[in-house]
């Protein structure tokens, strides 16, 4: 299977920012461990802090791959445009979050994209990505 992981704004700072919420591991190291764990599957990784670039990536991969694992970060709670992009593509998308967004600020409790995703996984740290991949590969 071919699976694309897409991370949104500020997730390039994992391992540096708010370690009490996001942990002390950077995503590049974690992504390498995912490739080792799932060697029979083709995993790709993309990160951008820009909403339009995330939408462009969804359009680019959303018709050819087997699955997308998306952590839209703060755009989860604000972006109707990303929600529309997910609705427009054929590839199933799983929304993931490192933290349990429902234990955080009230504005984080509402996802604008969840209704267009196959499912949502939140609160398991970086392991949320592994859980999403395991679901996609069945």
From TrEMBL:
Pathway: Metabolic intermediate biosynthesis; chorismate biosynthesis; chorismate from D-erythrose 4-phosphate and phosphoenolpyruvate: step 3/7. InterPro entries: DHquinase_II (IPR001874), DHquinase_II_CS (IPR018509), DHquinase_II_sf (IPR036441). The gene is aroQ. This is 3-dehydroquinate dehydratase. It comes from Mucilaginibacter myungsuensis. The record marks 17 as: Transition state stabilizer. GO terms for molecular function: 3-dehydroquinate dehydratase activity. Keywords: Amino-acid biosynthesis, Aromatic amino acid biosynthesis, Lyase. Homododecamer. SUPFAM superfamilies: Type II 3-dehydroquinate dehydratase. Belongs to the type-II 3-dehydroquinase family. GO terms for biological process: amino acid biosynthetic process; aromatic amino acid family biosynthetic process; chorismate biosynthetic process; quinate catabolic process. PANTHER family: CATABOLIC 3-DEHYDROQUINASE. The active site is at residues 22, 97. Its EC number is 4.2.1.10. It catalyses: 3-dehydroquinate = 3-dehydroshikimate + H2O. Catalyzes a trans-dehydration via an enolate intermediate. Substrate binds at residues 71, 77, 84, 98-99, 108.
